[in-house]
Amino acid sequence: MKLTSAMVRQTLDQFEAQPIPDNNPVVPELNKLFGDHTFFLDDNGLNIVEPAAADSAKAPEWQVVKVASWQDAGKTSLTPHEPEPTDVVIALGPGSPETAA
Predict the structure, then answer these.
(1) Rounded distance, CA 30 to CA 20, Å?
(2) How many angstroms separate the CA atoms of 95 and 84, rounded?
(3) What are the strands of the beta sheet with 45-51, ordered from one edge?
(4) What is d(CA 40, CA 75) in angstroms, rounded to the nearest whole number?
(5) Which of 39, 43, 46, 67 suits a disulfide with 20, CB 3.0-4.6 Å?
(6) Nearest in space to 84 (alpha carbons), one of 53, 48, 36, 40
(7) 12: helix, coil or strand?
(8) Digit-coded pLDDT (tens) for 20-70
(9) What is the distance of C-alpha 88 from the center of its chain?
(10) What is the pLDDT of residues 33-45, one digit of tens each?
């Protein structure tokens, strides 16, 4: 799910990660593999953020979900895997997701 610019900022206030800009050349491949999301890299790998309540994109709580792990200690290669919900829950204000600016 794509997040708005405000939602990305709120996420980064609560989760130490680096967002991958939409204009990064890797994003089309990530979208093919994982769907249309805002992607975040952290020390554990590649993550997305999804509503904690499966039935609502306007949920106040969102969960960080890891979709790929670093393959090497140098963090130069990722290995995709089944989505793994993490213990990280982000409090986001209500608002419909849209493409980040």
Answers:
(1) 10
(2) 25
(3) 18-19, 40-42, 45-51, 61-70, 78-91
(4) 14
(5) 39
(6) 48
(7) helix
(8) 999 999 999 999 999 999 999 999 999 999 988 766 656 688 999 999 999
(9) 11
(10) 999 999 999 999 9
